[in-house]
Structure to design on (135 residues):
């Protein structure tokens, strides 16, 4: 539940955000609160403006569509796997294996899965612009 996630991030009230959020649908207002609390917890400057820009970008991209938001655990795993994928070319599988506590074969499996995701995304973009991708 959103209230649980917000309470987990920080129990403090957000100052000055209620008036601006009043014009937003409840889900966007909740997303704003979560993004803002997370940014505040991590001591980012300009947190209100950044939280608003982030939520507006999410609304712009997903506006009007139902979306699935993965659990925090799954999202952290995905982010960790993306990092492993991006670092494998610069660092050895053995180094990453030791750092992340995974086997070398798991490192290569993660890399293969994300390489395939990247290829599928590029293919989808090329089909979207008539096969004329940016070359």
């Amino acid at each position: 539940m959103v209230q649980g996630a917000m309470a987990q991030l920080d129990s403090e009230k957000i100052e000055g955000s209620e008036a601006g959020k009043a014009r937003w649908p409840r889900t966007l207002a909740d997303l704003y609160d979560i993004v803002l609390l997370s940014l505040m917890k991590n001591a980012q400057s300009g947190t209100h403006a950044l939280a608003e820009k982030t939520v507006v970008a999410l609304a712009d991209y997903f506006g009007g569509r139902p979306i699935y938001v993965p659990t925090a655990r799954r999202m952290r795993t995905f982010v960790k796997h993306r990092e492993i994928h991006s670092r494998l070319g610069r660092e050895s599988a053995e180094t990453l294996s030791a750092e992340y506590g995974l086997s070398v074969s798991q490192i290569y499996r993660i890399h293969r899965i994300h390489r395939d995701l990247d290829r599928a995304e590029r293919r989808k973009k090329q089909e979207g612009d008539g096969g004329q991708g940016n070359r």
